[in-house]
Design brief:
The chain is α+β, with helices and mostly antiparallel strands and 123 residues long. The protein is 25% helix and 41% strand.
Length: 123
């Protein structure tokens, strides 16, 4: 837990809160890499992921980044593709002896930052 607390202080993730429970989170680094994009299973398909991604896109545009990149699981690929990401590379990972394919994906950014979404920085 101490490692996670340290990481959260260092990375300062965006979070979505429902009641007093964190139901989604994502990190964006200075290069445009999206890390730890997560939505609680009970809150999937309710706009949490879309709000997170919209917030990350607005933040990236405010940082004048030309694109976003992410390593995306096979189950999240459709979500990211539906939001304009393209597969750069398909990967055949093995984790603890089990196949865990994922995809390097990217999205070119244009225009001005969008409207504020329902996410906020964890301070």
């Amino acid at each position: 837990m101490a490692e996670w607390a340290s990481r959260l202080r260092t990375k300062n993730p965006f979070v979505v809160v429902a009641g007093n429970q964190i139901v989604g989170m994502a990190e964006l680094d200075e290069t445009g890499f999206i890390d730890y994009f997560y939505v609680h299973p009970d809150f999937q398909r309710q706009g949490v992921g879309s709000a997170l991604l919209s917030t990350l896109e607005a933040e990236a545009q405010a940082m004048h980044l030309p694109s976003l990149v992410a390593d995306v699981s096979i189950t999240a690929r459709d979500f990211f593709e539906a939001r304009g990401f393209d597969v750069i590379e398909a990967r055949s990972n093995v984790i603890i002896g089990h196949p865990a394919p994922n995809f390097a994906m990217s999205k070119r950014l244009t225009g001005e930052p969008g409207q504020e979404a329902m996410c906020e920085r964890d301070a």
